[in-house]
Amino acid sequence: MRIPGQLALLVAFVSAGSVFAQAPQSPPAASSAPAPAAADAKGTVPNTTEQRVLACAICHGKNGEGARKSEYYPRLAGKPVEYLYNQLIGFREKRRSSSPIMTYMVGALSDNYLHEIATYYAGLKPPYPDTTARADAATLARGQELAMRGDKARDIPACASCHGTGLTGLLPAIPGILGLYPDYIGAQLGAWKDGKRNSVAPDCMARIASRLNGEDVSAVAAWLATQPASPDRAPLAVGALKLPMECGGAPGK
Amino acid sequence: MNRMLVAIVLVALVVGGYFFYRYEAKTVVPEGAVAEQSQVVRGEYLARIGDCYACHTARGGQPYAGGLEMETPFGPLYTTNITPDPDTGIGTWSADDFWRALHEGKSKNGAFLYPAMPYTNYTKVTRADSDAMYAYFRSLKPVRQTNRPHGLSFPYSQRELLLGWRTLYFKEGEYKDDPAQSKEWNRGAYLVEGLGHCNACHSARNMLGAVKPGDEMSGGLIPVQNWYAPSLTSSKETGLGQWDVKEIVDLLRTGVSARGAVYGPMSAVVQHSLQDTTLSDLNAMAVYLKSRAQSGGEPAAPTQVAPTTEQAAAMMTTGAKLYEKHCADCHQPDGKGVARVYPPLANNQSITMSFPINPIRIVLNGGFPPSTDGNPRPYGMPPFFQELNDDEVAAVVTYIRRSWGNAALPVSPAEVVKARGVPTD
Among A56, A184, B167, B268, fewest CB within 10 Å belongs to which? Predict the structure, then answer.
C-alpha cells in the first residue's frame, strides 16, 4: 500500500527538519543490505561505503584526490559534505549538465545514499597533487588581484570573500578552491557562463562568472593553481563570513 | 544535543500540525470523503504501476508537470503537464476525458495522441482503475507549466495521419480475463500488458515506431537510447523460464537478484514504479511472465561484422588477461559474482544475448543499480571508457560471452565504436 499523501507530507517535513538541523545522516537500515555471499575464495564483500563507491575511484582516485587523464577529474576529498551533496543532486537533477556520465552514474541513487557518499569523500585527506600552472608574472598578478580583492568597478567580488582568505572554503557548502588544475577551474567558470553548470537559485557563481572575461578566467585559474594547498587546512566554520551576495547553493550565510 | 532538541521540536510541531490539519479537514470535508480518499490512494498506486512519473516528469522538474524531452527517430516529443492546473495541465478534464486518453488515445479536444503515450497498452485498463487514477491526479497540487510544442519532422508532425497508424497498430479494448488461467495469472497479464506497458520497450519497433501484432515483448533495441530490451518471451534471452518466481520478484522490487541487476532504463522503472508494487501483484506479474517465457521463439540475431576464428581466439587471450586485472575482484575469477552485490556473468543472459550492445555499454559506462527500499546503497561498477580502448573492450566482452559455459558470438571492435557514440543521458 502507498502511504497517504498527508502522511507522506509529514514524513517529508520530519526529514526536512533533520537535514535542517544538520543531524548526521544515519545510513539507511542495514537489515536490508545485501548479505555478501561467501561462495568464493575471497570471502565476503566489505559492507563499507568505500567498497560501494569503488566505481568512482577509476576517475576521481582511490582517495578522492582527483586525476588528470584525457579529461580532468576534480578532487573530492576534504570538500564540505553539503557542497559535494549539492553537486551530486545537481548531476542527478541535471542542473550540472556538462558531465552526462555523472548524471548517468548517480541518476537512480537516493538522497540518503548520495549524502553518505558526500560524507565519505569529505572525510578523506590525501595529499594534494602539484598543480602549478605556467603563466607569466602579469597574469598571476591579475589573478591574485581578482581572487583576493575582486574588481569593485565591475562588481566582481573577491574569491576570498566567500571561499575565505585562505581559500579553503566555508562550511556548510562552499568548497575550497586550491589544489585544483587550472583547466578544471577554467572549465567550471566557463560552464557557469554557458549555463551548463547551475546551482540552486539565486546562482551567485553564475552571476559572477557572467562578469568575467576570458583573460580574467585564465588569470584567476592560473593563480589559484599555483597556491600551495594542504589537506590539513579545513574549511571555515559555519557563519565565519558574511557573504557579499545571495547564494542558493550555500544557505546559512 | 541541540540538534536533538531542534529535531524533537520540529517533530512535535509537524505532528501537532498534522493532527490539527486532520481535525480541520474532518470538520469541513463532506460525507463520502473517506471513500474518495481511498480512491486517491488506489489511484496513486495504479499511477505508480503505470510509471506515469517516468515520462511526465523532467529531471529536476516538478512531478507530473511534464517537459521531459523524448528523443524519437521522428524528432523530439515533449511530455505534457498532467497536474490539475486548469490552463496548462488537465485541470479542466473530466473523468470521461481522462478515460478517453487512456482507452482511446485521444486528447480532451479529440486530437489523436502520439503513441509515445502507451495507450496501446493503457487501453486494457478498466474504467474503475482509470477513475481512481483520475482522482489521484486531481488531488495533486496544480503546477503551472506550459506544454512545449513537439519538434516532430514532417509528415510525422501531422497528427491526423495517426488515423492510418491506429488502423494498423491500435486495438482498443479493456483486458478480458482468460478463463482457462488462474486469477493470479490474469492479474499478472492485466498489469504486464496494461498499466505496466512492458512491451513498450521489450519489443522491436518497425519503421513507423509500432510493435507488430505477435511481436509483443519479443525483445528490441530501444530507439535512440540504444539499450537492447531483452525478449520476455524467449526462454533464452531473459531466461525467465529458468528463473524462480522469487528471483523475478527480487529483481523487480529491489533492482538486484541472485541472477543479476537491472541497468539502463530499467533502473528508473524499478525505482519509480516496480519497487512500490505489492508483493502479490509482483508475484502475479512474475507468474504471467514465466508462462510467456516458456512459449516464445528466439529473436533474430543482429547483423554484425563477425570476427574471424583467429581474431576471436586472440581476443579470448587478451580478454582473459583484462578480466583478471579489471573484473575478477568483483565478478570473481569463475564469473559467478557475489549474489545481489556483483552480478554473475556466467549464465547471465544479459551478457550472452544475441545483441551485444548492453554488455559493451556496461563495460564502457559502468553504473549503479537503483537505490530501492530493498537495496538502498547499491554497489557500483566503474566506467572503463578511458581505461580500455575499442580492441580491449571487444576482447573482454568476447571473453565474458564465451567463458564458464557461456557460448555467445564474439563481438568486434566496430560494435564498441558504435556504442561509444551513444549518449549516456
Answer: B167
Judgement on whether residues B315 and B402 belong to the same structural domain of the protein: yes
- pLDDT band for B238, please (50, 70, 90 cuts): low
Domain boundary among B265, B292, B319: B292
Of B416, B238, B230, B237, nearest to B319 (Cα)? Answer: B416
Mean of per-residue pLDDT scores for chain B:
89
User: Which of residues A38 and B89 earns the better pLDDT score?
Assistant: B89
- B178, part of any domain: no
B390: pLDDT strictly greater than 90: yes
Domain CATH code at residue B252: 1.10.760
Q: Does A108 touch chain B if contact means CB atoms closer than 8 Å?
A: yes
Q: What is the value of pTM for the model shown?
A: 0.85
Task: List, as ranges, residues 373-392 from B with C-beta within 8 Å of A.
Answer: 373-387
DSSP per residue, A89-130 = HHHHTTSB-S-HHHHHHHTT--HHHHHHHHHHHHT--PPPP-
Does B175 reside within a domain? no
| Substitution target from A25, A104, A115 for chain B, most B beta carbons within 10 A | A104
Any A CB within 8 A of B11 CB: yes
Scan residues 357-376 of B and list those with Cβ closer than 8 Å to A: 365-371, 373-376
CATH number at B318 reads 1.10.760.10
Is residue B202 a part of any domain in this protein?
A: yes
Look at A14 and B423 and tell me if their CB atoms are within 8 Å. Answer: no
Q: How far apart are alpha carbons B374 and B95 in whole angstroms?
A: 35
Can you tell me the distance from the alpha carbon of B53 to that of A68, in angstroms, rounded to the nearest whole number? 38
Output A71 or B349, whichever has higher pLDDT: B349
Task: Give the residue among B79, B59, B64, B90 at the shortest CA–CA distance from B148.
Answer: B79
B118 and B192: one domain?
no
Name the one residue in this structure whose C-alpha cell is 490552463: B87
Per-residue pLDDT, A70 = 73
* B64 contacts B199 by C-beta, under 8 angstroms: no
Domain range for B410 is 309-419
